[in-house]
Design goal:
The protein has 419 residues and is of the alpha/beta class. The protein is built from 18 helices and 14 strands.
């Protein structure tokens, strides 16, 4: 279980707090208006915990070169609207204008700096040790008493704004970060049985790593693959999925093809009895959905969903599970004819009495769009971060929080540290 310090372990009253959040949001291409404010709403509990502090908010929007790479002025306004209080904004990150704005802060004030990815050091410095020496980190650390990391969706990134303050300031988890760790740890370490891993989408290499970790460490009792994950495992199990589907997988996996194939083959050899492959797939034949049983393979058409019989089997398994860890759609859900598998497995999770954990990214968006979030055990705000965590890969942000506790002489073995 990850052991990190939280806001319960520090006194923030009157302190100057650097708060790193991930409020990277989908924007309207023309107007830059927010299409979804889920991530901004997710940080409100942490902001409320800091009402007596001077808060400097570090955030990003998209990345250089993308159409939605903009300033954080709109984010400051949207956050202020949701809070019902002013969020000041400065067109600077750690230069004279930012320093002057920080100096003018009073307890209870909120100041958002500009998009941290507009700073060259944030995007170019890759050496972990060098991050603490950047001007970005040194200048901001010099005016702050505490660093609060609430950016779980960025927890798998090693950048100055995420891990650069580790040895310079006490670093603690915000409410969102702590909640993510708590909820994921609950599902991974003390799952109610049976525990199902339902993994799909096109990030097949990540999903195979997740499946390997969950089966090899006894976390999951069964793997139900969907989407590209199912296609790959079916092919390796001896079912010819056809060249169009094989070519698509090779293109998506690219340089990770060989290592993913090797790990997937080992997974089938070691845990074949726990892997529940689809019994049919839905092919896109001239724009129409055609459900094809495995006995009719190969079909030289792209598979865009699991078949209707497989949907029935998966839904029944989910409804009788104690824990469900689900990530990724079961097919091309954007097309209504091929959304059946994705919709039905999400409905089954919502109707199940089990503890359902939804991965971030597309999965979280779909859950929100269908109004099912309140019926799930946990909906993660992090796509890549959530996948890395359940794959057993260390998250730089979490490692940083643990290291900071040790660096500042706090005994994390006895403190209130289990986020």
């Amino acid at each position: 279980m990850a052991k990190v310090l939280t806001l319960d372990d520090v006194n923030v009253d009157g302190k100057t707090v650097l708060l790193r959040v991930d409020i990277n949001s989908p924007l309207d291409p023309a107007t830059k208006a927010f299409l979804d404010d889920t991530r901004i709403r997710a940080i409100l509990p942490t902001i409320q915990r800091l009402v007596r502090a001077k808060v400097i908010i570090l955030a990003h929007q998209s990345r250089p070169g993308k159409d939605d790479f903009t300033s954080t002025l709109g984010h400051a306004r949207e956050l202020g609207r949701l809070l019902g209080r002013q969020v000041k904004w400065v067109d600077d990150i750690h230069g004279p204008k930012a320093m002057k704005a920080i100096e003018a802060l009073e307890p209870g004030h909120l100041l958002m700096l500009n998009n941290v990815r507009m700073d060259e050091e944030e995007t170019s410095v890759k050496d972990v040790a060098a991050m603490a020496e950047t001007r970005f980190v040194q200048r901001l650390a010099s005016v702050a008493d505490l660093f609060v990391n609430d950016a779980f969706a960025c927890a798998h990134r090693a950048t100055p704004s995420i891990i650069g303050f580790t040895g310079l300031l006490p670093c603690v988890a915000g409410e969102l970060m702590g909640n993510e760790i708590r909820k994921l740890d609950h599902a991974l370490e003390t799952p109610e049985r049976p525990c199902l891993a339902v993994l799909g989408g096109v990030k097949v290499d990540d999903s195979i790593q997740v499946a390997d970790n969950m089966l090899r460490n006894g976390i999951a009792d069964a793997l139900w693959p969907t989407g590209g994950v199912a296609n790959l495992l079916l092919d390796l199990a001896g079912y010819d999925i056809g060249e169009p589907n094989r070519a698509f997988l090779k293109k998506e996996l690219d340089k990770n093809w060989a290592v993913t194939i090797k790990k997937a083959k080992t997974l089938i050899e070691d845990y074949g009895s726990k892997i529940h492959l689809p019994v049919d797939l839905a092919a896109n034949i001239e724009g129409n959905r055609v459900d094809i049983p495995l006995s009719d393979f190969p079909i030289e058409a792209p598979f865009w969903d699991i078949g209707i019989t497989s949907v029935f089997h998966l839904s029944a398994a989910i409804r009788s599970a104690g824990t469900i860890i689900l990530n990724g759609p079961s097919g091309v859900f954007e097309n209504p004819d091929f959304a059946l598998g994705t919709i039905e497995m999400l409905n089954a999770c919502a109707e199940s009495d089990g503890y359902a954990v939804m991965g971030g990214g597309h999965t979280a968006t779909l859950v929100a769009q269908r109004g099912l979030a309140d019926k799930m055990g946990h909906v993660s705000t992090g796509g890549g971060a959530c996948l890395d965590y359940i794959a057993g890969r260390p998250l730089p942000a979490v490692v940083s929080l643990e290291q900071s506790a040790v660096a500042f002489g706090i005994d994390i073995s006895t403190a209130e540290t289990e986020a």
